Amino acid sequence: MIIDFHTHVKLAKRVDFDIEFFKEVILNAREAGLTAIAMTEHFNTKNYYEIYEQLDEHFDYIDDYYDVDGFKVFTGMEIDVYETGHILFIGHKERLLQIRRLLDFHTDKESFISLPNLLDLGEHHDLLMIGAHPLRETTPLHHHDPALLKRFHAFDLNGKDMHEHGIEEMMEDVLSFAAQLDIPVVCGSDSHHPIHIGVVKNVFEKDFSTAQEIREAIKGNQYKRFIAPNLHTKINAAKIVKKKMKEALTV
């Protein structure tokens, strides 16, 4: 299985979910060599529940993923915490939706859930928990108690961060940070546009159908990370196109 662990299927938080845009994301993911993605849309994006309503109308849901003509879209969610930081949850959609309903009154910065409480929820629902872009200046995780950080199953070597700060530099820093806590590192593109997706890949030795299987494979180091040589080119192109599309939406 070849998967990207951090993807978005909407152009931006404030826009509606568009099934045609989603299909374009999957098409580009296939062309980039992926066989699966983790759909980690922001928990406080506009009309969050509508994403699942539309996907349920178009695709079968099996174990922990939508089957999009043989391409696996694992369900997930990116959640802000009060103390600063973004957390990726991946697992069965009903468990994710249960947590999302609990967060209905925690969608603003002043009311974000605390990291300890969020980790408790993730563990209770047996989800794969990944610390997103742990060294990003605006939403770091390094300031948290190491005892909390050690509860993550992996940290995110983030495509956007490698683009901004240099591939080798960011890779070295994230791997060093994770090694201090004995936590694995997986790749996530953090794509918000189809062009961006596939700039990073995680290649597993086997195919999986559940987040629990993936979690065990990560724990067993049964995967390899790959960074596309055209990462900067693809992300630059995606940024330009995304900006133009967002400007058109505001007209």
Automatic annotation (TrEMBL):
Residues 22-144 form the PHP domain. Gene3D superfamilies: Metal-dependent hydrolases (3.20.20.140). It comes from the Bacteria. This is PHP domain-containing protein.
